[in-house]
Structures are given as structure tokens and as C-alpha cells.
Design a protein that fits this description.
Layout: E1 3-10, E2 18-19, E3 23-32, E4 36-54, E5 61-74, H1 76-79, E6 88-89, E7 92-101, E8 110-112, E9 116-128, E10 134-142, E11 144-145, E12 159-168, E13 175-185, E14 196-204, E15 218-234, E16 242-259, H2 260-266, E17 270-277
Parallel strand pairs: 2-11
Antiparallel strand pairs: 1-3, 3-7, 4-5, 4-6, 4-9, 8-9, 9-10, 12-13, 13-14, 14-17, 15-16
């Protein structure tokens, strides 16, 4: 072959994501052993979203596929700098740089089995106009994060949730007290890498008999930062029918140990736990 090597390389390392509005930069690498007549050179950014599953109740198949990104740049004019007057690509190693901005509203990459995925690829295509005319193709996957804008004032306000549980005796079913918990997060909106201050207030008005076996016992609280994902898919045969599935993921979790006896001594009715979650 006259073209020994053809590849598209991104300036960022593969594990580092791109953000909406950021430019995808890189270069097309072409190693030529012998002069070869070439045509058009194009680099494309393509994003594809797919959802699909079988509904457990109806056994109906749902499947959707949508293109969420299609940006390209024509590098043919730049390619001519490496060609002779007959558009023959010269021998040697050639690197052709490109720069393609991502839209601000691009959606995040995701990969969840039995739910769906959003994938992004950067591809390069070169038309080779030799006797056996053909296209040479190369591509690489890359990851995208949506651009978050939390400028709205309410996004920087604390948010609180409270739950209450009525406790009854095991023998007479008589109410013996109430247990309640109030969770407050310092900011409603969080950006990746930011720290959230979490305050948990536990109130226990239940009257219990103290036992020696309970003395010195430690209790714990599990704090989890969760992400909810909603997937929508279309019926494969009846296009007016749709199905929805939700998935909740614990992004970050931590366990906090505390001694009830110690807390009761300082806060007879209410205990407050504060912690930070990244």
C-alpha cells in the first residue's frame, strides 16, 4: 500500500472528557510510502443516543436511536499543502491539525446496560483516487460532559427534606414516640468537583429502657449522593407508543459512625451531624 498509516488523534488523553462549548482539537496523521493521488479529507464529530429494552409486563420491545451531534470540517484545502500540482500526496509523514467546537447544549456521554447509551466519535475519512479508488477511515471515541450553568440564585440556596416515623410498642401497639430526621444540603445545585455541606438532624423522642448490652454501642448513618437518569424509548412496531425507565445511581457514599449514648448526653432530644461530600 502507498499509504502505510492513517489515523486521527485527539489532543486530550482518552480518559479526559470534553465539555459543551469546548473545542475538540487534534490532528490527522498520514504516513505515505509512495506518492498517491488523493481527494477529499473530512473530520467528523458524531454523537449517537440509543435506548432499548423489553417491557417486563407486556413483553413488548422498545428501541430508539437518535443522532445528537453531527459536526464536520473539510480539510481538503489544508491537504493540498502536502501535495504536488497533480494532487498527489507526497511521500513522508504528514500531520494535519483540526479544531471543531462542540455545541453548548451537547448532552453527556453515558453507558448503562439494559437502559441505553450516548456515545461520541471523532472520525477522519480520506478519498484515495488511485487505480483502486477507495476511502481510508479512522475513528476514536471521546467522552462529553454537558455544560452546567448554575447562575440562577435559587441554585445556591439550601434545600431541606424531612421524614418522620411513628414508633409503637410491640405488645400493645401503643404509640411510644416519634423518630424524625431532617437533611439539609448547603446548595441546591452542584458542579462536578464542588463540595457539598450536609447537615443531618436526628430527633428521637422514643422512651426506651437502657440495657447493658446497648451501652457503648455505635450507630451509623449512610449518606449517598445519588443521580437519577430517565430513559425514554419508542415501540419498535407501533411508533406512537413509548416506554420510560428510571435508574438511580449512588455517585458517592460515606458511612458516619456515632455513639447514641454520647449524643444523648449532649443533645437530650436532638442530635446534629455535619459532614462534607465531594
Amino acid at each position: 500500500m502507498k499509504i502505510e498509516h492513517f489515523d486521527v488523534l485527539l489532543s486530550k488523553q482518552s480518559e479526559k472528557p470534553y465539555t459543551g462549548g469546548e473545542a475538540v482539537q487534534g490532528h490527522v496523521k498520514i504516513s505515505v510510502l509512495e506518492k498517491v493521488k488523493v481527494g477529499r479529507l473530512i473530520v467528523k464529530l458524531v454523537g449517537q443516543a440509543q435506548t432499548g429494552w423489553k417491557n417486563k409486563n407486556s413483553e413488548v420491545l422498545y428501541e430508539s436511536n437518535e443522532q445528537v451531534l453531527n459536526e464536520y470540517i473539510d480539510l481538503t484545502r489544508v491537504l493540498t499543502d502536502f501535495c504536488d500540482e497533480n494532487f498527489n500526496l507526497e511521500e513522508g509523514l504528514h500531520q494535519i491539525c483540526f479544531h471543531i467546537p462542540l455545541p453548548l447544549d451537547v448532552i453527556s456521554s453515558i453507558e448503562k446496560e439494559n437502559y441505553g447509551w450516548v456515545r461520541y466519535t471523532c472520525s477522519a475519512t480520506l478519498d484515495v483516487l488511485d487505480e483502486d479508488a477507495k476511502e481510508i477511515f479512522a475513528e476514536h471515541n471521546f467522552t462529553v460532559f454537558s455544560l452546567l450553568n448554575l447562575d440562577a440564585p435559587y441554585m445556591r440556596q439550601p434545600v431541606t427534606s424531612q421524614e418522620e416515623n411513628e414508633v409503637r410498642g410491640c405488645c400493645c401497639n401503643r404509640k411510644v414516640g416519634v423518630e424524625s430526621a431532617q437533611l439539609t444540603i448547603s446548595d441546591m445545585g452542584l458542579l462536578p468537583g464542588e463540595t457539598a455541606k450536609i447537615t443531618l438532624v436526628i430527633e428521637d423522642s422514643v422512651k426506651r429502657k437502657r440495657r447493658k448490652s446497648r451501652k457503648g454501642r455505635s450507630d451509623c448513618v449512610l449518606l449517598s449522593l445519588c443521580q437519577q437518569l430517565d430513559f425514554l424509548s419508542q415501540n419498535r412496531y407501533e411508533l406512537h407508543l413509548f416506554d420510560r425507565k428510571s435508574l438511580t445511581i449512588a455517585v458517592e457514599s460515606m458511612v458516619i459512625l456515632f455513639r447514641k449514648e454520647y449524643i444523648y448526653q449532649i443533645f437530650p432530644k436532638t442530635s446534629t451531624i455535619q459532614n462534607n461530600v465531594n
